[in-house]
Each structure stands twice: as C-alpha cells, then as structure tokens.
Design goal:
15 strands; seven-stranded parallel β-sheet; 36% helix; alpha/beta; 276 residues
C-alpha cells in the first residue's frame, strides 16, 4: 500500500524530502504559506498551522508526519505559536481524524545547546540554551517525544543551492576569519536523513543532524576564498567559540551523507556562483 505522508512547513527541506518520498512511491501532501512553491507532485493542504479550527478536516489518513515548519517572525510568541502550539494541535487533529501516524518527525535545531567553548555535543549532552528559540524548540521536542514513534532531529546550519550568503560575503570581502566552530548540513542530506529514518526498522527518539566535519569559520572562509580566487579574508575575534556537533548516532543508523563536509557541498555551489 502507498504511504500517505504530510509535510507541514514545506520549505527547502520539505520540498527536497517530498521529491524523495514521491520517488519512493509515497503520496505526499504539503502545508506551505505559498502553496505555488511546493515541489511538483506534492498536493497542497491549505491550512494555517496556528489556527486549530482550520485543521479539522485532514485530506487523508496519514501514516507519517514531518513537521518542518518555521516561524515567520523571530520572537518568543511567534516561536511558541508555530513550534509548540501548531505542532500539538496538528498531531491532535490528525489523531482525532483517524490517522495512524506510525512516525512523527520534528526538525529541531542545534540551537538547543548552550555550549560555547568548542565542546563536543551529541544526543546525550546537556541542553541549557540561553535564548527563547532554543528553549521553545526543547518544548516542541517534548511534544513529539511524548508519543510512540516520535522523533526529533536537531539540524545544524542548513546550506545548499540558492543559499549563497556566505559566498557573497567572501566574494565582497565582508567575511571574517575567526576561530569560532561551525556546524553544517546540506539540504539534500537533511531530506535524505529524514527519509532514511522513516524507512528504518527501528529509530531512536532523538538524533543530531550535522555533517562529519565541524570546522572553524576561518577554515571555511579561507577555503572558499581560494576556490573563488579572491583575496583571503581578514582575521577577526570570535565572540563565542560555539560547539561541535557529533553525528555518530545518525551514522550508526546506517545513514550515509552525500555531502560529508562543507567542501563537498559547496563545490558545485561555487561553480554556479562563479558562472553567474
């Protein structure tokens, strides 16, 4: 039988995931503010995730839910409305309508970690975020983990085609080489990991989604400047050393990254950027 899958918050990651699921034989619905931007083959469900009444009539009995939504404003009220209340209301509405929901995935963030001195972090590390964003995401993770088959995936900095801010900063000379650690994951690896976990025989309730190589910003911008053939970036002081994310649990699940380091992921992006 065909799996019915709902992707709630179908942006870059959701669209990339949707394309994979369709190729895998799934029937996919997507929730997005601009439904015209859904990937081909994803059926729109026009609802407001923050409005409980709009969720009353799901278009199918969903086997899997991916909650990949993001807040439209960076403030505590907006974060709680979309990440906690929207998530909880959607799960309740789907269950009330008879959806089996064998697995529910929530894309969280490594912002839940408060470490700032270059420490390694993984699924067992303390989570003591200073900001409202990390605290709210932890509350959302708890909503998912309270049910069987609930999985939170803490994604690090997402990059990929169209996300050229770093390349533009290096090219224009605005980038600064600092000792701060950075963690990244390519958008296609985000989608690939979620698809992999949906099909896995068993899953853990929590995974860190980040590539194999935490790296300092200095190393990243120096490498990018060399590839772009522009002047090496100026040196700068790091306000925080940040943390380093360990993906060992995701690796042990059998997932293999298409882009295990930033060099793998940025190579084609740089070629496109240089071409114009």
């Amino acid at each position: 039988m065909t799996d019915n899958v709902l992707i709630a918050g179908c942006g870059d990651v959701g669209n990339a995931l949707g394309r994979r699921l369709i190729a895998d034989g799934c029937t996919v619905w997507g929730v997005r503010r601009n439904v015209s931007a859904l990937a081909e083959g994803i059926t729109p469900w026009a609802v407001d995730l923050t409005d409980r009444s709009s969720l009353a009539s799901p278009p199918a009995a969903f086997d899997h839910l991916f909650y990949t939504a993001s807040a439209d404003r960076r403030d505590a009220e907006s974060y709680r409305a979309i990440y906690v209340d929207g998530l909880r209301n959607l799960i309740r509405a789907l269950e009330a309508a008879g959806s089996p929901l064998r697995r529910v995935f929530f894309t969280s963030s490594t912002a839940v970690y408060g470490q700032s001195q270059g420490e390694w972090v993984d699924e067992g590390s303390p989570t003591e975020p200073a900001g409202f964003n990390g605290k709210t995401l932890l509350d959302a993770e708890q909503v998912v983990r309270q049910r069987d088959g609930g999985v939170a995936v803490r994604l690090s900095g997402i990059y990929g085609p169209g996300r050229t801010r770093l390349l533009r900063k290096v090219s224009s000379g605005e980038a600064v080489a600092t000792a701060s650690w950075t963690n990244r994951i390519h958008v296609e690896d985000c989608a690939g990991a979620l698809h992999h976990l949906m099909r896995a025989d068993t899953v853990e309730p929590l995974y860190v989604g980040s590539d194999d190589e935490p790296v300092t910003m200095a190393e990243v911008v120096r490498w990018v400047s060399g590839e772009l053939e522009v002047a090496s970036p100026r040196e700068g002081e790091a306000a925080s050393l940040n943390k380093r994310c360990r993906n060992a649990l995701l690796r042990r699940s059998g997932f293999r990254f298409a882009y295990p380091s930033f060099r793998d992921g940025y190579a084609s992006m740089i070629e496109d950027f240089k071409a114009g």
